[in-house]
Write a structure and sequence with these properties.
The structure holds three protein chains of three kinds.
Chain A: E1 4-7, H1 49-54, E2 69-75, E3 81-88, E4 97-100, E5 127-128, E6 134-140, H2 143-151, E7 153-159, E8 172-180, H3 183-189, E9 192-200, E10 212-217, E11 223-227, H4 232-243, E12 250-254, H5 267-282, E13 286-289, H6 292-298, E14 305-313, E15 319-329, H7 337-347, E16 357-364, H8 379-397, H9 401-408, H10 428-438, H11 441-455, E17 473-485, H12 492-496, E18 499-504, E19 510-513, H13 523-535, E20 542-544, H14 563-585, H15 591-602, E21 605-610, E22 619-620, E23 625-626, E24 632-644, E25 650-660, H16 667-686, E26 692-693, E27 696-697, E28 715-722, H17 738-755, H18 766-772, E29 789-791
Parallel strand pairs in A: 1-28, 2-13, 11-12, 15-16, 19-20, 25-28
Antiparallel strand pairs in A: 2-6, 3-5, 3-7, 4-6, 8-16, 9-14, 9-29, 10-11, 10-13, 14-15, 17-24, 18-19, 18-21, 22-23, 24-25, 26-27
Chain B: E1 9-10, H1 15-22, E2 31-34, H2 40-45, E3 54-57, E4 67-70, E5 73-77, H3 82-87, H4 89-94, H5 96-103, H6 108-113, H7 116-122, H8 130-135, E6 139-144, E7 147-152, E8 157-159, E9 162-163, E10 170-177, E11 182-190, E12 198-208, E13 232-240, E14 247-248, H9 250-256, H10 263-276, H11 287-306
Helix pairs in contact in B: 9-10, 10-11
Chain C: E1 4-10, E2 13-19, H1 25-32, E3 51-54, E4 57-60, E5 73-75, H2 88-95, H3 105-118, H4 124-130, H5 142-160, H6 165-172
Parallel strand pairs in C: 1-5
Antiparallel strand pairs in C: 1-2, 3-4, 3-5
Helix pairs in contact in C: 2-5, 5-6
The chains are: A alpha+beta, B alpha+beta, C alpha+beta.
Chain lengths: 824, 308, 173
Amino acid sequence: MPRMTIRTPPGRTLTPVAPRRTETDPLVLQPGTIAPGRARPAAPLRREGPAKLTGEAKYADDLVFPGAWYGATIRSTDAHARFDGIDLDPALDWSAIAVVTAADIPGENIVSLVSDDQPVLVPVGGEIQHQAEPLVLLAAADRETLRHARRGVTIRSTPLSPVFDPRLSDHVFAHFDIASGDLERGFAEADLVIEGEYRVGHQEQLYIENNAMIAVPREDGGVAVHGSLQCPYYIHKALKRALRLTDEQARVVQAETGGGFGGKEEYPSIIALHAALLARKTGKPVRMIYDRHEDLSATTKRHPAIVSHRTGVKADGTLVAQEIDVVMDGGAYCTLTPVVLSRGAIHAGGPYRCPNVRIRARATRTNTPPNGAFRGFGAPQVEFAAEVQIGRIADALGMSPLDIRRRNLYRVGDETPTGQVLRESVAAEEVLERAAEAAEFEGVRTRTERARARRAGSGSVPGSPLRTGADRTASGIGLALAWHGAGFTGSGEVKLASVASVELGADGRIRVLTASTEMGQGTKTIFPQLVAAELGVAVDDVDIAPQDTALVPDSGPTVASRTAMVVGGLLIKAARRLREVVEERNGGRPFADVHRADAAAHGPTRIDQQFEPYPHVHFDDETYRGDAYPAFGWAACVVSVSVDLDSGEVTVRDVVAADDVGRVIHPVLAEGQVEGGTLQAIGYATIEEIKLRDGRYLNDRLATYIIPTSLDAPRITTLLVEAPFSGAPHGAKGVGELPMDVGAPAVVAAIRDATGVWIHELPASPERILAALGVTAEPPGQAPAADTVRAALDEPIEAGTDPRPDAPTDPQPMRGPRDPGEPS
Amino acid sequence: MPAPVEPPIETPASLPEAYAVLADSSAEDPVTPIAGGTDVMVRITGEIGEPPRRMVDLSRLRELRGIAVDRGAVVLGALTTYTEIRRSSVCREHLPALVEAAATIGAGQIQNRGTIGGNAANASPAGDTLPVLLALDAAFEVGSNRGQRAITADAFWVAYRRTALAPDELILRIRIPIGSGRETRFRKIGTRRAQAISKVVLALSWVDQDGPPGSGRVAPIAPTGNGPIGTWRDVRLALGSVADRPIRTRATEAVLEAASPTPEIADAAAEALAGEIHPIDDVRSTAEYRRVVAARALHRMIRDAGGW
Amino acid sequence: MTTQHITLTVNGEARDADVEPRLLLVHLLRDVFGLTGTHIGCDTSNCGACTIHVNGQSAKSCTMLAVQADGAEVRTIEGMVAGTELHPLQQAFWDQHGLQCGFCTPGMIMQAAWLLDQNPQPSEAEIRAGISGNLCRCTGYVNIVKAIQQAAGELQASASAPAAAGEAVAAEA
């Protein structure tokens, strides 16, 4: 299907945005011009494309530092233990090997983030909290010596009793309670109450470039680290604190970065600290390059979650009460968990108006490796639950999945559970209708429903679970809708007070200075576009300064889909001021005509633009009331699957994704974000799974942690919808995370349409599908708790919706003797 | 403390040279043959399992290459790659199930390097070509300084990751009988659609007593379900990923022997298979899933053959 | 430490090295020859980032020892550029945004080049099967498939009209 860009048509319920400027340019929207549309914006080629295409681009492990040593991390193998000591094999010559322990840390033994609970290295006598916890660091001049050394270290420890079930943990990292209306009255008004419990497991970001960091000692006693990272200033702060360095002594430089997806937001701080400690000990550059096994075993994953819903609805499908309980597994340390949980709590109800809501969310500690940031950041977990719940409600009421969403979705003027009134930029209906229309959702669904009815009774169950039916496969179509708060939650941006700069150099070239990193999402391509458009110059006249803390200001972390929206907005404002300054100096002549002469006459001119709070956006972090986000992005997804009825294997055939990004800056890059995010969501829905035993990930290789290949990937049609946000000068709201929220519930709804059964736990693996169909017994430890559907209506609940009402639960995630196969 | 990884490697240019290197190989101090390296190398790069202590690179032994038809059999040199099998007109004509299996291994690059001999010698319980070799009653011609001998497929895999090869022996060729109206079906249920390791893999083969002779690829006898259904002889059913090695399931074969692919026989065979195999839970799947899906996949094969 | 002397051709140039038997071909290329465009993304031969050509066939250079490449002709991503001209596949990946983070890109291009060498006019399904040994986490493979389709068209056009080959590529760029 062709790509297209859909604009919000006239007559929709969008509030015109406030006037901002009168000049015309290809990117910035004029007041009141939502409807008429405009040419598809320009799509310049990726700026760093040639370097990446020819092998010239230098990722961290490609950088050469003469005389560099190789570093390694010795980790715990206990999930929970006291660290009693280290034995070094006396047969080895340790004079050629650097050994670093917690005792070598000059500053605080803390990895600086939200909470100060995570040590850089566990000290002897300290408590080991997870099986991949760093205890000792080694470095040697060559890989072979390092291999010997790694085998020569023995850790002594005394096991302590571990906790693996987040519901049983009494160590709470964070909890949130959001309430609106009167829940009891809501349930009293309901014609139908439906309960459900939903579970999601770990998901690995699986950037193709593993984590990598190289530390180089500086003459001033400090250290420069070069590496694969998202947030230079997070690392800068961590280095200063643990190594007692000044701003100048700590320098962080981003190498070309092979993907992040949140996975290089926080963990690189630990690797940088480790590399820096070894560099300090040896006086040499030290390369800390993770292999895939170490990266999968030790670095952060998406938080597993258990989400319980109790929903009251009227007979016509109107939501009247939502009671939601969210438990997230934080892993062993706090990391970013409170922030992830907060986003999860705010999004837990889904993009639906409901007058009476109570959301309780908590995240607890378990003795597993810490979980952290991953595209979607708490929202995919809760929106999966919310969407399956709404799908089951539609089933129970005999409504179409489209109609129940139409009835309840947010429109302008609605109020969210935090009391935020959605004043503008609400495109829930738009994305839903566009996706449903393009995928011919209702028509296809009528056909699949008929096919399902025809198959009923002809299949393998209850005849014999070993008997196949006449049909080998079944097709299904599923739909999901989501919202995603744009940028940081609450007052995050105000506290950050990011700075981005635009400079007219003495050579007449324009330079963008930000700490916002390119990881593939297109930062280096869109920033020059925004600045060039504002200044009226060619894109090629705008350079990007390297992401080096010695050169660029702190424009905040490259996370939360905030780069285009927030930092892009700062750059437009900086460029606007630069233009005004230069034009005023040159008798009002256009910037493009005079900037070279101006630079020659006046030397460099630099504008630093600091974030200014969005007008009318207020949030109270104490009460959790107010505008949780300046705006929301909206996403809908329609997925077509076929399910192999013999094996439960799911093939995702087609996806239509409609995403409202506020304003499109670069259509091909924006579509690329939707395509990549959609496939990650499909992986999450179908095959990506981590099983644990004794707190250790069993899927710790690329041969066992399975992500979609090109043959697993569906055809993806992307529809970009534009409902601009008035707080950003260009109207953009961010795109990266939206597709991650909708893909998984849409796949599960399509499986339901094909087979008649709802899967309550991700991934919706063949094992779970056959169990839900009653073909196999429940896999151990993977059953959600019983769901109950209590009907106050006369109509019977559709048979087969909940085939296993009394399924047992088991806190142990996985058991099994051994692996019969090896990677091939 | 295991020895640091630095296996020396010999690169013989001829079979006698290779035999000479291997003459020194013993169970305690084995010389590990390496050809495409697709299995051996992960023991080095991924440090998975014990690294090889010494290696002999077979990739230059031209004697072990080539695909030929010889005395009623297809003969595959041990170094035949999966890509060569997929492209071979001989294999496509006579061994379509093997071609199908070869296409499911890894992906292009691995198929370019990985060899059928290596797949057999690696003896993974999940090796995808191995059930096909069992179902086709292949024989391994193996050799050493001490001479040559043949080992039938069903005697080749003796335990978890162990073969009947002596430490000094190499697989030279694999001989696969063809003709006489034998039909073969292959089904792999993997973790994804490419680069997947099997959760269950099956190969079923039979000779249709009443079918047209000499054809390896006949349509179902009774596609509409109304015509006469043939009788199956010499039935072989082999599975991977359901035991510690690739296995034949003889109790299930007995149900199918001298029977016709009817619904009753399919039910009975599926029941027999589910009772005969004892797979395990692991990182890729569950024992229950493997047991049930193996039986259902067999049921489907019989159903398709019967045309009902 | 015993080393072996090997000679091979890399991107058309004769090279030699004394290598330890354990040295992987990918490490020879990256650490000894400085050809860091060939990437390492895993330790189980799944990711495909290290894909190169050995004697005209695509291979994952982590599944080969350097000594096994003795006497071989090796081509890496660095050998795809002709002078300053991008190879039609490189140009197509740029044009179609068939890359984001770029880490899988060299391996993906080398595998695509082999695919087009074997099958100059692949269907979409054949392209997807052909690159299924190369993992990409950024693009959903959508624009990668488009890029290979574009390059297939251009390479076909230049093959059928050798004299005009340079112009066809330039016009498309």
